[in-house]
Amino acid sequence: MSKATVLTGITTTGTPHLGNYVGAIRPAIAASKNDNVLPCYFLADYHALIKCQEPERVRQSSLEIAATWLALGLDTSNAIFYRQSDVPEIMELTWLLTCVTAKGLMNRAHAYKAAVAENEQSEDGDTDKGITMGLFSYPILMAADILMFNAHKVPVGKDQIQHIEMARDIASRFNHIYGEHFVIPEAVVDENAATLLGLDGRKMSKSYNNTIPLFEPENKLKKLINKIKTNSLEPGEPKDPETCTLFSTYRAFARPSEVEEIRKQYAEGIGWGEMKKILFEHINTHIAPARDRYQALMQAPEHIEEELQEGAKKARAISQPFIKELRKAVGIAAISAR
Ligand code: TRP
Q1: Which residues of 207-217 are buried (b: 16+ CB within 10 A; e: fewer)?
Q2: 145 in Cβ contact with 84 (< 8 Å)
Q3: Which of 60, 105, 152, 294 has its CA 20 to 30 A from that of 123?
Q4: What architecture (CATH level 2) is domain 215-296?
Q5: What is the pTM of this model?
Q6: Region(s) of the chain under CATH 3.40.50.620
């Protein structure tokens, strides 16, 4: 049986936080250990340019994200771990796909529609304001990421499901016109993956500015955990774990038996100070070994680059022959004798 290709990308615009870790990175690394799977994980740096025009930030984020995945034990002998922009065939495929994609399909993309809707609220009534062609055609780039490697499964958050549906549409359209070249990919939404809450109790997210960076040094981690919002119940008063950010965060890192123990302590009125201490100790112990590896990697970026170059080589061993086939299929290959 040939392996199922599982592919996902991480946009390089920020510093990985605890929410990214439990929601996406941890399950992806666990999945990469399955021998029946070919994991293709990549730094989506072409995508970063859609959201971020600060070169230094994109550069730094790429470095941090790569170091994070390697520090957390991504097995690059099994997985293909690469930087999107090291595989220029993706860009070429984007054009081939752009030419079979209906504009109307892109008009329906949530991210684009949200930007238009926001503009409609504004004074001057320019619905195109601030919307680049990059944002508009971003689902095509994402389709190229996926179809380039004929991915079977694409693990994503719920907000990305529509993009996978678009990739399926685009692939079918291309196959219909030019013959069966692409696997039709499937979105995989991990219902068991935890969604962490941030410092303010809303979903932990870069855009809410409420995150705890994954590899924050110990003292800073402690400070941030102390900032997590709680209610004002006093020590000794029974507390409801189900509505508590500290508890749900603990649960994302602890074994069920440990979670039950803490649940009891909530009923017995554990104080918030005490709970924060327990939470800090627990998370800190959990991530300390990876944090040490992360810091070592950040001191030796050339090792990170080496890994990415290895990954690019493996990726291009797939993408180069495939783009050749696709060029031929659409009629732009070199002229050959008949
Ligand atoms: N757009 C995705 C996100 O914002 C990242 C991404 C880019 C991606 N290309 C992809 C995810 C291909 C899955 C497959 O989260």
Answers
A1: eeebbbbbbbe
A2: yes
A3: 105
A4: Orthogonal Bundle (1.10)
A5: 0.94
A6: 4-194+301-337
Q: Residue whose CA is closest, atom 4 of ligand 1?
A: 11
What tens digit of pLDDT does each residue of 41-82 get?
A: 999 999 999 999 999 999 999 999 999 999 999 999 999 999
Residues of the chain with CATH 1.10.240.10: 215-296
What letter would DSSP give residue 233?
A: P
Do the beta carbons of residue 50 and residue 63 sit within 8 Å? no
Handedness of CA 262, 291, 190, 135 (dihedral sign): positive
73-112 pLDDT, tens digit per residue, is 999 999 999 999 999 999 999 999 999 999 999 999 999 9
Alpha-carbon gap, residue 252 to 249, rounded angstroms: 5
Ligand 1: distance of its center to the CA of 43 in Å? 9
Q: Residue 267: which of 314, 293, 233 has the closest Cα?
A: 233
How many CB atoms neighbour CB 64 within 10 A? Answer: 21
**Which of helix, strand or coil describes residue 234?**
coil
CATH topology of domain 4-194+301-337: Rossmann fold (3.40.50)
